[in-house]
Amino acid sequence: MPRGGPAVTHLSDEEIKADNKPALGRIVRLLAPYRSQMAAVGGVVVLSAVLSSLVPFLTRATFDDALFVEGGPRMDLLGWLVAGMCVLPILSAMLGIVQNWLTSSIGNSAMADLRSDLFAHLQKMELAFFTTTKTGAIQSRLANDVAGVRTVLTDTMTSILQNSVTVIAALISMLVLSWQLTILTVVLMPLFIWLQNKVGKRRQVLARKTQENLSEMTAITEESLSVSGILLSKVFNRGESEVDRYRRANQLQTKLQVEQAMTGRLFFATVQTFFAITPAIIYLVAGFLIQGRFPGADQGITAGTLVAFTTVQARLQMPLMQLMRVALDVQTSLALFRRIFEYLDLEPAIVDRPGARTISPDELRGDVEFRGVFFRYPEARALTGAPRSDRFADGSGKVEAVSTAQADAWTLSDLDLTIPGGTMAAIVGPSGSGKTTATYLVPRFYDVSQGQVLIDGIDVRDITLASLADCVGMVTQEPYLFHGTIGENIAYAKPGASSEEIVQAARDANIHDRIMSFPEGYDTVTGERGYRLSGGEKQRIAIARVLLKNPRILILDEATSALDNETERLVQEALERATHGRTTLAIAHRLSTIHNADVIFGLVDGRLVEHGTHAELLADENGLYARLYREQFSTRTPQATGEGRDGDLRADVSF
Ligand SMILES: Nc1ncnc2c1ncn2[C@@H]1O[C@H](COP(=O)(O)OP(=O)(O)OP(=O)(O)O)[C@@H](O)[C@H]1O
């Protein structure tokens, strides 16, 4: 059974900056399917901006033409102007509701697309990706990061559009009212934009750190609060330290969140203050203008112009501040988008070759051949934000040191095996000799480094992955049952299987009677990973599953845990039925199970050291198999040769 692979490597901040791919273009592409709705949003926004920018002119007219005119207020005109000033905001508000509905549906749909794309893409990733990446980290990108960009997709886009239009409309109104006062109002804008950019960069870094930490927290939760994790922590009484580990990550999360929230506060306070004091400065400058001290004074500034101008200027503040805030949010979200795109950009290592053939289980003889196979586990991919291991006192270095040491050695070397269709081959060898690894090459969980694995003379890399999966079945060492009923777990092998087929498979796997003895029969819920069932029951359910699939080639990785005699007999019988009439590649820890194998291959350190039938191999007294056999059936304890110590020969530890 393969263990965790080499550690995921980490990128430095500089490398991340260098890798800042233009994510904005991709976000726009993500929204492309919603073009027409977006155009509608654009129309609504422009319309409402135009409506609201009419208000200051109504204000000016109110002051200059209706209120303060010679001979007293002109009430008829005032009535019309006031009516206009009431109707316009009402219309704008109604348009705002329509726009909210449109943006919310666009944003949520785009986010759902992103989540589905990411999930579908991850499904295509090879096994090695999952053995080298923490499950929690993957889940975190799917849940936390996608949720993190949600606001960008829902609100930000419209906020940018809406506020830009409002700002432009306000600026135009201001220019029409008085260009000199407009210059005064916008003079500090370049400084604000520069400051905003700086704050944005800082926020981006913080956002990435926050997400990394969040993903670490999800990983801890996933590791410690899963059934296996909680068992491990209870057995070794590590509950306290797990809580401690979580608490530390949690504290860091709080610190980062606060820092993120506080970054830019000073900036916003400055901008706000500037806007608050601008009207006072405007009045002062207006005084000078009216006195004719500045150019353009001859145009004259009326009281109405001044009131209208300060109204627009005050109205400019909100959208401008929002634009700056949104720009910051976008920068923050870009960091999250990059994390998502990084996963989307991962090329699955194992894919169909161009022109790959489809094989059909009915036409297959089932010959399996390993020809000069060399194999080494691939290095982990370099990803940003991969959670660092804090389980080692010296950080992640320890893990990486191990992976470098492994890098030179072949896990399998120069392996030649021939298994004719319909026969049974067994692989024996010490623990870690590469038995499971060899079987993984047949369904292409990994690709060979050199050489070929062939089915019916066709290189497995020239067969489509889907048809290969249809032809090869596997009972893994630790059968995986998902949280569902026993019936659903068996039927997973063949969606749409009839209940008769499921029962027949269970009967053949010697588990039907046991299932029927549960009060709820096939509707019994297995519990996560099948924890509510015994080891022997899980194995037989896994066998039933593979029987239902009825593959041409069957790989059996025998469980190492000992079973009582009766269960052992039931499993044995089920296995015999399962292997009947198909090519079987069995990894046997209990040698009693492989007496009848047509050929037995002995592996040591990934090399084939012997092969033959049970009788032939037993005849060579010094051979690996004969030694294993003697150890299992005579003393049942490791011999003093040294080879059998420390569970070195896996065959020993199962007894
Ligand atoms: N995902 C992986 N990444 C890197 N190395 C691995 C991985 N899985 C297994 N290995 C290494 O490859 C070697 C062969 O492992 P494998 O699981 O094939 O042995 P095995 O003979 O099936 O052992 P066992 O009988 O204990 O199940 C071991 O040294 C193991 O540490």
Automatic annotation (TrEMBL):
Entry superkingdom: Bacteria
Source organism: Nocardioides yefusunii
Compartments in which it is found: Cell membrane
Keywords, comma-separated and alphabetical: ATP-binding, Membrane, Nucleotide-binding, Transmembrane, Transmembrane helix
Region annotated Disordered, chain positions: 636-655
PANTHER family: ATP-BINDING CASSETTE SUB-FAMILY B MEMBER 10, MITOCHONDRIAL (PTHR43394:SF1), ATP-DEPENDENT PERMEASE MDL1, MITOCHONDRIAL (PTHR43394)
Residue span(s) of domain ABC transporter: 397-630
Annotated CDD domains: ABC_6TM_exporter_like (cd18550)
Its membrane topology: Multi-pass membrane protein
Transmembrane segments: 38-58, 78-102, 167-195, 266-290
Main location per the UniProt record: membrane
Keyword Hydrolase applies: no
Record's protein name: ABC transporter ATP-binding protein
Occurrences of domain ABC transmembrane type-1 (ranges): 39-332
Keyword Iron annotated: no
Pfam families to which the protein is assigned, alphabetical: ABC_membrane, ABC_tran
Bias (Basic and acidic residues): 643-655
GO molecular function term, any single one: ATP binding
